[in-house]
């Protein structure tokens, strides 16, 4: 089986996937490719990667839809993207002045073809995994269980009482 081709976008100094191609606009972080993710198309071929890691990036880009479209383009059929971003109820989502977007549990449903408002893009993914994480796993394990069991109820009634830390979503590309 051939080795998986991995792209880490907005990698910063994080090199958690050995052998991954890293891209960042900040030269000082030492990426393999220096590129601003807001400038499209990205300097990669269609279907070049099997996996894209997008950790603490999506909240910084100018256009989430355009970024997901580029991820869709550079992923091969069946490729996956892992997105990790602060939940909108997390203080850090609002404290960091470079954050442009504050996302929730259902934000990525707009790319699955299963949402009534999904007509903004033709880029389609299958939702493979989705989980809300809470700071201090032990002390917040009950909140995490409740939020992931009943996410609509959590976001409508409890998110500002028991803020989540971040969202982890894995999407599989459909072409």
**String of helices and strands:** EEEEHEHEHHE
Number of separate structural domains: 1
**Helix content estimate:** 10-25%
Q: What is the CATH T-level topology? A: Rossmann fold
Polypeptide structure, described:
This protein is α/β, with parallel strands linked by helices. The protein has a single domain (6-174), classed as Vaccinia Virus protein VP39 (Rossmann fold), CATH 3.40.50.150. Helix content is 19%, strand content 27%. It is built from 4 helices and 7 strands; from the N terminus they run E-E-E-E-H-E-H-E-H-H-E. The chain has helices at 64-74, 91-95, 141-149, 151-158, and strands at residues 6-9, 21-24, 33-34, 49-55, 75-86, 124-133, 166-174. The protein has a 7-stranded mixed β-sheet. The protein is globular, with a radius of gyration of 16 Å.
Give the key terms.
175 residues; alpha/beta; Rossmann fold; 7 strands
Summarize the structure.
By secondary structure, the protein is an alpha/beta fold. The chain has helices at residues 64-74, 91-95, 141-149, 151-158, and strands spanning 6-9, 21-24, 33-34, 49-55, 75-86, 124-133, 166-174. The chain is globular, with a radius of gyration of 16 Å.
Topology at a glance:
Elements: E1 6-9, E2 21-24, E3 33-34, E4 49-55, H1 64-74, E5 75-86, H2 91-95, E6 124-133, H3 141-149, H4 151-158, E7 166-174
Parallel strand pairs: 1-2, 1-4, 2-3, 4-5
Antiparallel strand pairs: 5-7, 6-7
